[in-house]
Design goal:
Blueprint: H1 8-13, H2 16-25, E1 29-34, E2 39-45, E3 51-57, H3 65-80, H4 84-91, E4 94-108, E5 115-124, E6 127-136, H5 137-149, E7 153-162, E8 165-182, E9 185-190
Parallel strand pairs: 6-8
Antiparallel strand pairs: 1-2, 2-3, 4-5, 4-7, 5-6, 7-8, 8-9
């Protein structure tokens, strides 16, 4: 299944330095610079001889920065024969003001501490990822219940990639997701 990502916030969150490092690591070469070094053309020839090029803004000064990043991801999709979601999961280093659903897989609290370290698993840009967060007493009780009873949770805040996982900064919401039966319908409620 081919998915076209059209979320300009995701493309706007991409760090050009991460993309440049990715291009270098995957065999792309910088061909030329444009606009007083504010843009660059990157090229790559694949195994069948097809040549691909990416016009990459090197600064966020351009009003169409998110659109150009979207074009870059589309070109990478064609050149690498991978989905946009797979590529974005390699490129995204932060997601601001985002809500992610998942399951608590670990709760670690030192005795007497009012803050606990919690690990949850959730999908970040289409890829299952470990997510680390710190919770205070009220949210900690919800996390323990979610862990013990395998209840899905929702977590809102700023997600920042740190190594091979995401950490939640500026936590805005942590809640249980429970099913409520109403006649023939089942609704998911956040509590």
């Amino acid at each position: 299944m081919k998915v076209n990502v059209q979320d300009f916030e995701v493309f706007n969150s991409l760090d050009v330095n991460v993309i440049v490092a990715y291009l270098q690591r995957t065999g792309w070469h910088e061909h030329s610079r444009l606009y007083d070094n504010k843009g660059a053309i990157w090229i790559k020839k694949n195994d069948t001889g097809d040549v691909f090029d990416i016009g990459l803004p090197l600064t966020r000064e351009f009003a169409d920065y998110p659109a150009r990043m979207g074009d870059a991801v589309k070109t990478l999709e064609a050149a690498e024969n991978r989905s946009q979601l797979e590529i974005l999961s390699d490129l995204v280093t932060s997601l601001d003001n985002t809500e992610i659903q998942g399951f608590v897989v670990k709760v670690d609290r030192e005795e007497g501490e009012k803050i606990a370290k919690v690990v949850m698993m959730g999908f970040v840009v289409g890829k299952l990822q470990k997510i680390y967060l710190e919770l205070k007493e009220n949210d900690l009780n919800l996390a323990l219940k979610a862990y013990q009873e395998r209840i899905p949770v929702t977590c809102g805040g700023d997600f920042v990639k740190e190594g091979g996982y995401f950490a939640v900064k500026n936590l805005r919401e942590f809640a249980l997701m429970v099913e409520e039966a109403k006649g023939d319908e089942i609704a998911i409620a956040v509590i």
